[in-house]
């Protein structure tokens, strides 16, 4: 009869594998987007991502006052896809610090990462209350406009979700200093 590994053993193997995968991913992407690794360029990405999320909020508000049609659904996908693509690029130029295993970070990087993650989680948790209650209220009140208001509320929830999930990377992309150039040999 074979013995099963303990939970602690499995967890340690998982952590070691995660560290190895992260290190390999950083090594693969170390030379990707070299001109975008400056603070100025990262801030451009952060601003563009913020603009995509603001556009999503505007579309959610507009959707409350117009009747549902296919064009509104198509318009909503554009800022969502744009935000996801920009967040991917921003993750590359920040070396995915928001997702980094704690074992690979120094105390300062760990504090920055944890602070950014905490703020992102708070925005996600508290941000859902406003559109959530909005959707609930429109369902309770009903009427002719409830479908548009519910649809607009769901778009606002997508905007909050997009903001909450990309905020840690956005904060780190904005706050990280320029990396020091590696000495040439």
What does this structure look like?
- It is a single chain.
- By secondary structure, the chain is mainly α.
- It has one domain (31-175).
- 74% of the residues lie in helices and 0% in strands.
- The chain contains six helices and no strands.
- The longest helix has 30 residues, at 146-175.
- It is globular, with a radius of gyration of 21 Å.
- The mean pLDDT is 86.
Task: Please give the radius of gyration in angstroms.
Answer: 21 Å
Approximate helicity band = over 70%
Coarse shape: globular
Q: SS-based structural class?
A: mainly alpha
Amino-to-carboxy terminus distance = 57 Å
How many helical stretches?
6
Number of domains: 1
Work out the strand percent.
Answer: under 5%
* Topology, number of strands: 0
Order of helices and strands: HHHHHH
Largest sheet: none
Unreliable segments (pLDDT under 50, ≥5 consecutive)?
none
Average pLDDT for all residues:
86
Question: What is the topological layout?
Answer:
Layout: H1 7-28, H2 39-65, H3 70-93, H4 107-127, H5 129-141, H6 146-175
Helix pairs in contact: 2-3, 2-6, 3-6, 4-6, 5-6
List the keywords.
single chain, 6 helices, mainly alpha, globular, 185 residues
Describe the structure in brief.
The chain is an all-alpha fold and 185 residues long.
């Amino acid at each position: 009869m074979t013995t099963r590994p303990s939970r602690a053993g499995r967890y340690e193997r998982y952590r070691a594998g995660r560290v190895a995968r992260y290190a390999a991913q950083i090594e693969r992407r170390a030379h990707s987007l070299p001109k975008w690794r400056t603070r100025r360029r990262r801030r451009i990405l952060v601003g563009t991502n913020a603009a995509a999320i603001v556009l999503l909020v505007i579309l959610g508000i507009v959707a409350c006052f117009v009747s549902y049609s296919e064009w509104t659904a198509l318009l909503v996908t554009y800022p969502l896809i744009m935000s996801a693509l920009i967040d991917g690029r921003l993750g590359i130029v920040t070396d995915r610090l928001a997702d980094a295993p704690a074992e690979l970070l120094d105390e300062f990087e760990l504090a920055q990462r944890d602070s950014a993650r905490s703020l992102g989680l708070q925005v996600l948790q508290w941000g859902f209350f406003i559109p959530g209650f909005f959707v609930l209220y429109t369902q309770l009140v009903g009427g002719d406009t409830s479908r548009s208001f519910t649809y607009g509320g769901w778009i606002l929830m997508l905007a909050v979700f997009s903001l909450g999930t990309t905020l840690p990377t956005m904060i780190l992309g904005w706050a990280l200093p320029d990396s020091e150039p590696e000495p040439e040999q």
